Every structure is written in structure tokens, then in C-alpha cells.
């Protein structure tokens, strides 16, 4: 990451606070949320901001996540900026509403604290809550640290509300590893954020008796194909917009996140691992130690899962002899979602083996040793040693 | 249900058959489309029928604004529910045509103007493609399952009666149709999120309050007719009309036949009995022409 | 108080919608919109009324209109209202029109939540006593004995076994500013309640009996008559719960329930014992209503 250009207040805060503070700076007019571990700090902080007069907004303490997203959809369709946050079961309960938010092109921003989805019930980190939402039409970005969470909430509004995009976005942060972990975070200057993020003034969907509009009509087959195509076009347009917003943010605030993906020590790498979420940070250290031992390994950080960065991955993997893809979720009967998507993206562009690693499901810690094992396998794979399509790391009875 | 019963009848004769509706948004009484395919071998095609051998019209008022012979194959037959003889049926081009007063038959046999069973008798007679006995069995299979043995039997009787009363001939050509316009924007023009303000399109007005472009007058089989002299202008009929088809006037109300679906609520609530309840065919000539076409 | 004659000529729910002939729901929408007027935003859940009034690109409502989903009418209306307030348009009426399925069953959670928060909206349940949109399946608002496609008349069971859920009393338990029931057969009472609902602030709940010719298996011309008989027999109570006070607006004639039941195909299988059960239910319902008047004076 680049040097900071501006000196603003840095405070030691949790990932949940970072997600809430990002929303505070974005000045939403309506927050509707339902508490769920480990997202609860976010809704508590939002309530406090309003109670203390720091944020002039309505807080709707609704009776379910389904209602939280419904309220955001209705308010956003009326014409105001909204905010909510959830996790795990809450996101699953929202499922049908997510399609509506995207289908109506409402640029809602929602941090999701990635938590395992029952059964078995647990509260720790897994990506099996957000991954099943991949087909809803929401953009998805996965964060590595608390600073990225805050910075992405701000950028998320800017990306989502861009007239070329107008789609909702999930800002994903790993349960506890970010949500409940404190670290120093630059809390940004309100005036600078205001200059970066203009107020939300929709032209495509609003409810105003002086200029009536129908939003959410029942539609016969004559119209739905075109509407679906529009959503796909919006998602494609988001690629460019993400690039622009990344650049503008880097320019104004001094942190460049790389866009759809970020890379680390890939210059002459022979093998690379792709990660998403907090494992990325651990993997950076592992890359350094392998490099110190003369092993040419590199790292690709998958930031956006939707839109999926196909072109960027084709470019980033040129010259590699093997690629490993780490997932914190499994699509049963197939493999890790980002492994599946990566192989699809690279099809016809590369001959190298692309293998999948699963680790950290249900909140199990992913250690440097686990990641080191992945790099060792990849180095072996590059030399022609065989390995399964998908490897379960740190799983009793299936240890490689 | 008519298409289903026809399929059941064809199956009774050892054929394979498919029958399916076009699932529209209309409620009971609205014009609807249904299709049937019959073949001696298994039918695999699952699309709508665009080039039918036979077209069956259950409501002849539809022929005023739908070119019912548009897809009909050369040499195909049109079967129409109408008290008029085939020679009085005006279509876009002359076609083989059979008519029967199925509404009359239905009122007589069933006591309600539901013509979907009677019309099948006419179909059997007009096309010769299926035996009357099979049609009756098909009706028993489908209507009987829904209405019980007795209800099924009655509907089969309606078909038999209609069979007897059907006359065949040729329709008269020369009816001109304005091309039906539909607003079909491509993805660039379609408003994002389908959000619509009041907008004029090549196919008319769309958006909030634009449903009045849809003339629902074609739905009715009965129509209210007002005796102006008896109307006290109490406005109770105007209050209740679910279709906003009663128009307020200085001295008395009037009926807007463009929208009147013929529910009869106004007739029932009229205290001075100024509204009469009349079968549509008997009054239609007296109504404004756009109410029919 | 506005009379029928004083209602505006202008419709904000237009002709050309595709409701069945005689639809009680369409009557409710048209009359309610005359009272609410143009400064209104309408929300619809998935329902008969959504389908017959909002088929893209046409819509029967002349005012802004939103549909999101089925079970969230109350919270969506609340979201609209709060957003309008934020935009400086706090004088706009926000009205949700939902059926009995969308209200008494799948929508009850969101309804309760919005009522408890006293959201500033008008919620109208047009009660046609079954899931008519999907083809006449029972709801918790379907009356005892009624045939529906999921309470069929079979050799073991015939019709619905349970009595109707009393949603107005559930709403009263939330102690919201206004709860009322109405019947389309009593125009001045209905108009008065719509006007009260419009004038008040906070959560306002109005449940209107809206006969359905298709689902009730009755003559379309008889819809108003049936709505009247429901009140005269005592099957449907016209009540108001206003700022903590409970009032029965009309003492029924207590005409025999079978007059009402026999006019509808959905009840034609009822036995004399069933009919007696319904008659007894009417009696106990009336006793409860009178008791409530004493409790909530």
C-alpha cells in the first residue's frame, strides 16, 4: 500500500466499527437493521451515532433481516441513501429481497460479516453466507483489514451509485478476525469524504406524488429478458467504474487497493496462490518467507467476486507454472466457488494446472503452516507432481 | 378447460395430445388464449401454436379487434360462437367457417353463459376430426373431474346440443385490422428497474394511471342498460362500479361501455331500478361502435 | 363527513384494470383512492390487486406505486414514509393495500413490527378471505366451513375446520392510533373510516370485507349484497378502535346466517350442525364485542 497523503485521525477500532464509521461518513438517510452476531457492533454504533446527533438519519429497528432489506429497498426506491449490515442466517433470510434490490437497480451498501451458515450452527468465519448470493446481482468485495473495510464502504457507495452501475454492493469482512479485532484505522476526514461522495439523487427510481412513477411492476415475458440484460450490462460496467473509483480514492486518500484484484510479489513468480478475505494478510507473510528461501511464489488477492475479474486474472497468471485458489466455502459436489470461477475464467487462456484449497471453514484458524502447505503443493504441482483438484487443508482424516 | 377436454377427447381416440393455456395476468372473464396439439405420435414441441389448422373463437366480439385468421393455415377452419350464420361472419380473408350460438346453448343447458364445453360439439361437427362421443368423454374426463359426474354430464349435453345446431359454410373476407401496436423497447430504451413515469410511446400511453388504454368492454356477456327517466342520480352505481364504468352526469348517470365488464353490481344496487340487465348481443347494436370494436 | 355524492369525480385508480367482473377488491381500491387523493404513494405486495392493477407497462394507480415482495407490505410502506419525511415531503399519505394472505399470514410479522413502531402509514387489508391470486387457497382469514382448494369438500373433511383469525384484535393489542373494520356495503361508514385513517398520524389499520365472486362462488352482481348480509348476520363486525376506545358502529339485525351462507357456493356443502356452529360463533363474537366496548371505553 501507498504512503498516506493526508494525516487524519487514526484510532484503534474493530472491523465492525470501521464498517459503521464508513457509513457515518457516507451520510445515509435511513438505516434499517436487525442485530446478529458478529455484526451487532455495527448496528449498535449506528444507533449511537444517531442518538448522539452525529448522524442525521432514521434508524429503523426492524423485526427481521427480511424487513431490514425491505425497508432499505423501499426507502432507496423513494430516493434516499440507505445502509444496513448483516451476517450469516440474516443474509440467508434476506435472500429473496436481494434479488429485488438488484432488479430495481437500487445502490444499497451492506457490510456482511462473513459467518458460518447453519447447520451445524456456529458464529465463526466462513464464506458460505455470501457465496450463495453470487447470482443475486449484487457486487461483492472481500476485505483484508479494518482499514479496507472503512475505505470500501465509502468507495462502495461511489461505485454503486454511479449511473453506469446502479447495483447494490456487499462489503464483506471476516467474522471476529476483522469484526471484533482492533487495529489502528485512519477514520478519514468528513469534508474529504463529502467531496469524494456526492449526495444520492436518483433519476431512474423515485416515488414522488408530483411526478408519479411505477417501480416494481408485474412484468410479462416481453420485458424481463431486456431487464436481465441491463443488469448484466451494469455488472460489466462496474469493472471500469471500480477501476476509476479505486484510482480516485488512491489519489485523494492515499491508499490504492488495486481494483478488482490486488497482487503481491508476482513479478517473476512461478507459482501463485489466490486468496480472499483475511487469509490474504497471512499469505503475504508466507510469500515473504518462501521468497527469502529463494522460492518464486506470488500472491493474488481476489477483491471483487462480483463482477468476477476474469481479464485481470488472465493477465496476472501469465507466466505461472501452477495456480492455487483458496476458498473459505464449498459448493457441495463441485468445489470452492472462487476456484470454480477462476478455472472458468482461465479456460482457453492457459494450460497450467489450477488447483483448489479449502481451509478455515466454520471459523477454523488458517495458519501460516496451512498456507505454507498450499505453496509447497503448488511448487510440487509445477514440477509435475500430481494432486487432487480440491484439497482440504487441516481436516482430520483427510490430511494430505 | 375446453382445450384440455379436446386433448382428453383426442387421447380417447388413441392420439397423443397436448393442451395448455397462455398464462396471462387477466382474471376471470378477460380474453384468454389456449392451445391444443393433436398427433398420432408423441408430441415433443412445447411452444405456442402459431400456424393452427383450426381456430376456435368463444367470443365473437373479439373478432372486432383480433385478426383471428392471421395464423390459420390455408384450408383451415374457423369455429365461432355466434348466433349468425357463417356467411355473416366477417374475417380478414374468406375461410371455411362454422358457427353455433354456444352462449344460447350454454344458457339453456347449463344456465350460465359458459361456452367452453358447448363449443367443442361445434368443433367436432365442423372439423370431422373427432367423434362427438369422444368429445363427450373428454368433457366428462376434464369437466367431470372439476364439477362432479352431474356437472360433467351437463357439459357433455351442451356439447351434443351445440353439435346439432352447428352450421358450416364460408366466412366473408374484407375486414381490415389496424396492426396491433405494442411497446417493445430494446434494452437500451427500457427504463432501468422498469421504473416508468407517464410516457407516450408508439403504442400509446404507459406508466401510472395508463391502464385506461385497456378497454375491458369486450369481456361482458351481459350489459346494464339505463332508463334515463328512472335514474335519480343517487350515484350508488357510480360509487360501486369496480371498473369506473359509470359516468356522472347533470341529471342522470351513463354507462361507459368501453370499460363495463358486465358484472351487474350497478343493476343490483340501483334502488329505482333504472338499470336493466340485458344479454350483450341484444343491445350491442345500440351501443357506441368503439364499445364493440 | 363526506357523502357518496361529495366524493371527487376524479379516479386515482383507473378503469381498464383486469380484475374479475364484480371484484370487491377493485371497489375498495377505487373508493379508497378517491378519499386519499393524488398526494399518496401506494404499496402493493404480491396479490390479486398487484396483478390486476399493475401489468407492465400499464398501471391503474395514477400515483407513485411500489411493489417489492409479498410478506413485507407494512415495512415497505414504512420505508417509503420515512424516506419521504427525509426528503421534506412529510404530507404524503403512504398506503399499503394487501390481501388477507399477505396480512394475516405471511405478512403478519412485518405488520406487527410496523405497528409496534407506530410507523406513520395507512394499512388496508382487503379481506376476500382466501388466497385468490393463486387460485382460492385457504388463509387464516378464511371463515369456518368455507370451501377453498386447500380445504376441499371431501368424504372425510369438508371445508375449513378452523374459524377466522381476528386480525383487528391483534392490531388492537399493539395499541395503535386507529384500527377499524369496514364493509363496502356501508358507504358512509366506509368513507368516514377512510377519512379518519387519512387524517390521523401513526399506524392506521383498516380491514375491509371485499367479496370475491370467483373465490366465493357467487354471482358477480351480488357482491355488495353479500357484504351487507355479512354485517346484518353479525358475521362481520363494523368496529373502530380509536385512541384506546372500542366502538361497534352498527348493531347487527342478527338475521340467520344461512341467508348469507346459501348465497355462496363456497358454503353449499355445510350441514345444519355446521350452520349452527357458525350461528353460535356469531353469538359469542357479539358477546366479546360488547365486552370489549366495556373494557375500552
Features:
heterotrimer, A: 400 residues, Rossmann fold, 2 domains, six-stranded mixed beta sheet, 11 helices, 18% strand, B: 293 residues, alpha+beta, Pyruvate-ferredoxin Oxidoreductase, domain 3, Alpha-Beta Plaits, 3 domains, two-stranded antiparallel sheet, 8 helices
How would you sum up this structure, described in words?
The complex is a heterotrimer of chains A (400), B (293) and C (297). Chain A folds into 2 domains: 10-253, Rossmann fold (3-Layer(aba) Sandwich), CATH 3.40.50; 261-392, Rossmann fold. In chain A, 39% of the residues lie in helices and 18% in strands. Chain A contains 11 helices and 17 strands. A 6-stranded mixed sheet of chain A has the order 11-13-12-15-16-17, with helices on both faces. A 5-stranded mixed sheet of chain A has the order 5-6-8-7-14. In chain A, α4 (88-103) links the parallel β5 and β6. In chain A, α3 packs parallel to α4 (88-103) and α9 (310-316) packs across α10 (337-346). Chain A is globular, with a radius of gyration of 21 Å. Chain B is an alpha+beta fold and 293 residues long. Chain B has 3 domains: 2-170, Pyruvate-ferredoxin oxidoreductase, PFOR, domain III (Pyruvate-ferredoxin Oxidoreductase, domain 3); 181-213, no CATH class; 215-292, Alpha-Beta Plaits (2-Layer Sandwich), CATH 3.30.70.20. Chain B has a 4-stranded mixed sheet with strand order 3-4-5-6, with helices on one face. In chain B, strands 1-2 form a two-stranded antiparallel ribbon. In chain B, a hairpin with a 2-residue loop joins β8 (199-201) and β9. Chain C is an alpha/beta fold. Chain C has one domain (24-295): Thiamin diphosphate (ThDP)-binding fold, Pyr/PP domains (Rossmann fold, 3-Layer(aba) Sandwich), CATH 3.40.50.970. Chain C has 11 helices and 8 strands. An 8-stranded mixed sheet of chain C has the order 2-1-3-4-6-5-7-8, with helices on both faces. In chain C, β7 (239-242) and β8 form a beta hairpin. The chains are: A alpha/beta (400), B alpha+beta (293), C alpha/beta (297). Chains B and C meet through α5 and α6 of B and α1, α2 and α9 of C. β10 of chain A pairs parallel with β2 (65-67) of chain C, so a sheet runs across the interface.
Amino acid at each position: 500500500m501507498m504512503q498516506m497523503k493526508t494525516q487524519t485521525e487514526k484510532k484503534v477500532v474493530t472491523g465492525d466499527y470501521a464498517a459503521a464509521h464508513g457509513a457515518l461518513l457516507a451520510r445515509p438517510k435511513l438505516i434499517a437493521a436487525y442485530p446478529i452476531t458478529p455484526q451487532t457492533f455495527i448496528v449498535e454504533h449506528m444507533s449511537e451515532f444517531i442518538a448522539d446527533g452525529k448522524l442525521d438519519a432514521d434508524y429503523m429497528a426492524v423485526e427481521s433481516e427480511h424487513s431490514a432489506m425491505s425497508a432499505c429497498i423501499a426507502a432507496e426506491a423513494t430516493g434516499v441513501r440507505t445502509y444496513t449490515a448483516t451476517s450469516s442466517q440474516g443474509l440467508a433470510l434476506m435472500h429473496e429481497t436481494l434479488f429485488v434490490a438488484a432488479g430495481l437497480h437500487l445502490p444499497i451498501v451492506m457490510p456482511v460479516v462473513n459467518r458460518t451458515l447453519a447447520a451445524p450452527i456456529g458464529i465463526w468465519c466462513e464464506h458460505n453466507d455470501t457465496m450463495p448470493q453470487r447470482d443475486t446481482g449484487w457486487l461483492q468485495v472481500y476485505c483484508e483489514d479494518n482499514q479496507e473495510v472503512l475505505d470500501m464502504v465509502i468507495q462502495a457507495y461511489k461505485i454503486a451509485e454511479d449511473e453506469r452501475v446502479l447495483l447494490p454492493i456487499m462489503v464483506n469482512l471476516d467474522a471476529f478476525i476483522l469484526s471484533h479485532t482492533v487495529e489502528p484505522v485512519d477514520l478519514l476526514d468528513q469534508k474529504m469524504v463529502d467531496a469524494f461522495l456526492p449526495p444520492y439523487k436518483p433519476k431512474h427510481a423515485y416515488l414522488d406524488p408530483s411526478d408519479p412513477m411505477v417501480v416494481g411492476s408485474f412484468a410479462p415475458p416481453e420485458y424481463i429478458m431486456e431487464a436481465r440484460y441491463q443488469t448484466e450490462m451494469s455488472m460489466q460496467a462496474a469493472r471500469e467504474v471500480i477501476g476509476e473509483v479505486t484510482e480516485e480514492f488512491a489519489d485523494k486518500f492515499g491508499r490504492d487497493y488495486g481494483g478488482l484484484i490486488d497482487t503481491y510479489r508476482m513479478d517473476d513468480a512461478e507459482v501463485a496462490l489466490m486468496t480472499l478475505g483475511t487469509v490474504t494478510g497471512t499469505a503475504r507473510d508466507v510469500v515473504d518467507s518462501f521468497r527469502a528461501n529463494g522460492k518464486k511464489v506470488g500472491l493474488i488477492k481476489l477483491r471483487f467476486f462480483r463482477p468476477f475479474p476474469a481479464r485481470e486474472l488472465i493477465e496476472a497468471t501469465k507466466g505461472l507454472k501452477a495456480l492455487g485458489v483458496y476458498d473459505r466455502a464449498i459448493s457441495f459436489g463441485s468445489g470452492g466457488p472462487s476456484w470454480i470461477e477462476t478455472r472458468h475464467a482461465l479456460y482457453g487462456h492457459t494450460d497450467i494446472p489450477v488447483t483448489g484449497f479449502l481451509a478455515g471453514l466454520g471459523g477454523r484458524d488458517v495458519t501460516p503452516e496451512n498456507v505454507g502447505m498450499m505453496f509447497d503443493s503448488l511448487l510440487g504441482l509445477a514440477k509435475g507432481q500430481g494432486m487432487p483438484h480440491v484439497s482440504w487443508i487441516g481436516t482430520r482424516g483427510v490430511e494430505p | 378447460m375446453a382445450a384440455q377436454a379436446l386433448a382428453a377427447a383426442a387421447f380417447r381416440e388413441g392420439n397423443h395430445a397436448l393442451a395448455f393455456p397462455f398464462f396471462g395476468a387477466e382474471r376471470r372473464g378477460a380474453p384468454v388464449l389456449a392451445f391444443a396439439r393433436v398427433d398420432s405420435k408423441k408430441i415433443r414441441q412445447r411452444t405456442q401454436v402459431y400456424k393452427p389448422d383450426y381456430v376456435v373463437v368463444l367470443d365473437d366480439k373479439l373478432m372486432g379487434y383480433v385478426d383471428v385468421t392471421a395464423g390459420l393455415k390455408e384450408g383451415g377452419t374457423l369455429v365461432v360462437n355466434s348466433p349468425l350464420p357463417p356467411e355473416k361472419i366477417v374475417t380478414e380473408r374468406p375461410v371455411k367457417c362454422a358457427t353455433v350460438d354456444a352462449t344460447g346453448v350454454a344458457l339453456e343447458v347449463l344456465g350460465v353463459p359458459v361456452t367452453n364445453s358447448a363449443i367443442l360439439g361445434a368443433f367436432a361437427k365442423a372439423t370431422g376430426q373427432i367423434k362427438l362421443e369422444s368429445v363427450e368423454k373428454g368433457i366428462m374426463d376434464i369437466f367431470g373431474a372439476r364439477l362432479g359426474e352431474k356437472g360433467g354430464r351437463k357439459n357433455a349435453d351442451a356439447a351434443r346440443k351445440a353439435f346439432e345446431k352447428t352450421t358450416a359454410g364460408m366466412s366473408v373476407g374484407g375486414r381490415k385490422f389496424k396492426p396491433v401496436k405494442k411497446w417493445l423497447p430494446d434494452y437500451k430504451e427500457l427504463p432501468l428497474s422498469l421504473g416508468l413515469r407517464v410516457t407516450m410511446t408508439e403504442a400509446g400511453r404507459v406508466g401510472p394511471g395508463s391502464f385506461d388504454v385497456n378497454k375491458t368492454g369486450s369481456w361482458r356477456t351481459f350489459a346494464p342498460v339505463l332508463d334515463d327517466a328512472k335514474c335519480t342520480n343517487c350515484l350508488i352505481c357510480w360509487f360501486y362500479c369496480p371498473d369506473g364504468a359509470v359516468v356522472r352526469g347533470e341529471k342522470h348517470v351513463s354507462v361507459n361501455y368501453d370499460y363495463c365488464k358486465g358484472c351487474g353490481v350497478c343493476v343490483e344496487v340501483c334502488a329505482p331500478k333504472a338499470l336493466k340487465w340485458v344479454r350483450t348481443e341484444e343491445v350491442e347494436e345500440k351501443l357506441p361502435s368503439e364499445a364493440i370494436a | 363527513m363526506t357523502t357518496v355524492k361529495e366524493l371527487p369525480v376524479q379516479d386515482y385508480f383507473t378503469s381498464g384494470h383486469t380484475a374479475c367482473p364484480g371484484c370487491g377488491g377493485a371497489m375498495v381500491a377505487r373508493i379508497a383512492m378517491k378519499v386519499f387523493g393524488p398526494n399518496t404513494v401506494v404499496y402493493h405486495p404480491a396479490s390479486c390487486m398487484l396483478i390486476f392493477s399493475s401489468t407492465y407497462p400499464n398501471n391503474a394507480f395514477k400515483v407513485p406505486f411500489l411493489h417489492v415482495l409479498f410478506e413485507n407490505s407494512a415495512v415497505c410502506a414504512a420505508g417509503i414514509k420515512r424516506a419521504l419525511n427525509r426528503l421534506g415531503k412529510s404530507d404524503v399519505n403512504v398506503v399499503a393495500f394487501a390481501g388477507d394472505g399477505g396480512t394475516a399470514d405471511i405478512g403478519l410479522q412485518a405488520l406487527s413490527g410496523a405497528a409496534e413502531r407506530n410507523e406513520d402509514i395507512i394499512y388496508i387489508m382487503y379481506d376476500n378471505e382466501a388466497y385468490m391470486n393463486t387460485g382460492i387457497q385457504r388463509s387464516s382469514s378464511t371463515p369456518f366451513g368455507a370451501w377453498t382448494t386447500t380445504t376441499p369438500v371431501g368424504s372425510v373433511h369438508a371445508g375449513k375446520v378452523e374459524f377466522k383469525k381476528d386480525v383487528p384484535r391483534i392490531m388492537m393489542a399493539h395499541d395503535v392510533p386507529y384500527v377499524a373494520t369496514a364493509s363496502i356495503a356501508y358507504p358512509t361508514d366506509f368513507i368516514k373510516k377512510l377519512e379518519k385513517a387519512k387524517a390521523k398520524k401513526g399506524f392506521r389499520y383498516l380491514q375491509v370485507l371485499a367479496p370475491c365472486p370467483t373465490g366465493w362462488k357467487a354471482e358477480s352482481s351480488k357482491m355488495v349484497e353479500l357484504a351487507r348480509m355479512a354485517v346484518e348476520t353479525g358475521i362481520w363486525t363494523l368496529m373502530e378502535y380509536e385512541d384506546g376506545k372500542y366502538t361497534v358502529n352498527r348493531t347487527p339485525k342478527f338475521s340467520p346466517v344461512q341467508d348469507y351462507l346459501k348465497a355462496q357456493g363456497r358454503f353449499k356443502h355445510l350441514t345444519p350442525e355446521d350452520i349452527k356452529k357458525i350461528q353460535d360463533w356469531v353469538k359469542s363474537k357479539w358477546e366479546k364485542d360488547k365486552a370489549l366496548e366495556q373494557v375500552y371505553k
